Each structure stands twice: as C-alpha cells, then as structure tokens.
C-alpha cells in the first residue's frame, strides 16, 4: 500500500487549521482528515508493477471505477490548492495518473463492468449470468458513472496541472469504447448486447425480461441497468447519471481534441453530450410536490417516471458538486428541496441524524456520503461545519465514516470500513477550509 509523506500531511493539517479558524471543532476536523487520508492511502491504494494505481473500495477487495476516482479526489484538491511541496504534489499526480491508466485498461477490457479484480482470477461478488465471460470483472453491472468518473477526473487533472501522463496507449481505445457504448445504449432495446441475470436474489440485484431490464423507448438518454448504488434501475434512464455522463463526454471531447489530437472523436463526444442534454431537458423534468418543476430520478421514455434520490453519487443533490448544475439554478433548488423532504422516500430523520439514505441499505439509515454532499452543495459555511460536527458525533465510536448510520442509534451502521465515505468527509472539510476541487 501507499504511504503519504509526513511533510504533505503536516502541510494539510496547517492549511486546514488556517482555513477552519479557531472554532472548537477545528482541531478534531483536521485530525480526522489526516487520519482518513492516511487510512485511504495505506489500506486501499497500491501501485502495481506496471505503474498503474489499484484502489480497493474498503471491505471488498475489488476496485469500483466510480469509488476509486472518488476515493482519490481529495488528493486532487491538495494539488489544486498547492498544499505541500511541489515534489509531494507531483507524487499525488502520479497516483492519479496511475489510477486513470488503470481505468482505461478496464474500460477496454469491458465497458459494461462496474468493479474489477487486481488480476484476472475470476473472483466475483456473486454468480452472474451475462453474455460475456470476463475473469477481470468482480461484478458486471452496467452503470453510467463507470464511464464518467475517469474522463471527468482526467480533465480536472489536466486543467489543474497540464499533466498528460495518463494519456497512454490505452486512452484512445478506452475513449472510443465509451463512445460506442453510449451510442449503443441510447438504443438499448434494438442494439444492446448486454444482459444481466443473477438467479435467486431480490429484484434489485438482477434485471427483468431475461436480463434486458424494463422496457424503454429511445429519447437520446443513455440506458443503464443499475444505479450508482449497484441496485437495479426501476426505469431505464437514470437522470443524475445522464447529467454526469453528458458532462464527462463534453470533457472527454476536450481531451480527445487537445491531448490526443483526434478531432473527429472529439466532435462525436460533444455531439453525444449535446444530445443527452437536450433529452434531459425534454424528458427529465417532472412536476414536484408543490407543482414546481424538478428533476426526476428515473424515466423510461414511455411517460413513466420515479422521484427519489439516493445517497450514492451521481445523485440529484450532487449535481452542482459534479459541475452539472449551478447551485443557484431554480430547477436545482426546487429539486434539492424535494430531495431533503418526505417527498423523497429515502429521506430519513431521527434523534441524531437527518438526510438521504438509500434502498441499498435498511430503512432509517442516513449515509454520511449524502450528508457531505448536502454540505458541499449548501454554500453556507456554518451548515458545512454543522454537518462535519454531526458526522463526527455519529460515527458509532469507531472514528470512521460508514455506509449508512441509523438515525436514532449511531452504533447501528453498515460497513465499518468504507473508504469513499471517509474521502467525502475530507472533501467537505477541505472545501470549508477553502481548498477547492477546481482553480478559482
């Protein structure tokens, strides 16, 4: 595993205290961030013999494309914020570049898989019946964020540093695999080779219609079998996932043009992005609980929709965090208000916590990831600090963030070791201290 230099961690601690001020909780918040950065590096990150970076999700020994990028995003904040020495920051960029090169390898191997093994040993979460035998895939659930996090992270690394070491020989094949998969899944019924069946499990863990999923009509949106939670999409077009994919394709267009020198592929990425955004405007909006216009969570192109929000990112609440919306946009503000209300069936409130949970975890469990996203999209520093303090009080005495925490009893939680959740706490704390995701 990887050890972050003490010089870097000392610099992080100093910048945090400078940014957080003299409030009583500042020392504890800063201490947590250092502990979580160290824990993520030392327990989940490894540099492989080929120089790529492999990142396990925590208590599962596989690498999710989504989780791995999110787990290392706090490191990019340190680079953007010029925290630590130039040498220390160069080391962080090397880890991020290595992660991206690993992403490209996996996407070329199988653009439909969501989680991968370190080696092609056939390890898996559970037995699946798909139309492709892939010993690299820990799980072959097709989720839009698997194709989005890599291009988005590569664009942000490039913009922040000018570094293009991530653009190796696998980048262009991976980019073209993304474009081909997007084109195919805009017409899932007619063109898709993807099927997913898992016998003997609840409906949220498999796809209906012999693995094809619920019926959809083409709209320009991109179909997915599963949500960022790894649960089945109730309807085929996940709206926050399509928002993030549209942004990732736009940014992929920049990378294809300016880094890879592939103008035709860049134009295709931008065309697909524009097509998805138009479809979002035409098919993704619904009437909210007070008659106001809000974003749906999923639609099927046949007139059906579902409103909820899930703690997992991409989510509706996370749209400004992902750069998919302005936090002041009236449509987003109305959507966010509905998400943080009983209109969202996965909004829970109790004695210790209130916020967004997930159908992936039991009732009355709020996710720290969602609480951090709530803070990161609030624009209110006092609210950000309140959330950080609340999360520290509800860690169940473990000192770590969890997947879901019971609103009335913080000693009841899911996943004692969940690195993505720790990283999101770091992001909110760094944001409160003025260390941002992008240059300002």
UniProtKB/TrEMBL annotation:
Protein name listed in UniProt: Glycoside hydrolase family 125 protein
Protein's UniProt keywords contain Transport: no
Keywords: Hydrolase
InterPro entries associated with the record: 6-hairpin_glycosidase_sf, 6hp_glycosidase-like_sf, GH125
Pfam families assigned to the protein according to its UniProt record, in alphabetical order: Glyco_hydro_125
Lineage, uppermost ranks: Bacteria, Bacillati, Actinomycetota, Actinomycetes, Micrococcales
Family matches, as SUPFAM superfamilies: Six-hairpin glycosidases
One function term, GO molecular function aspect: hydrolase activity
PANTHER family per UniProt: MEIOTICALLY UP-REGULATED GENE 157 PROTEIN (PTHR31047)
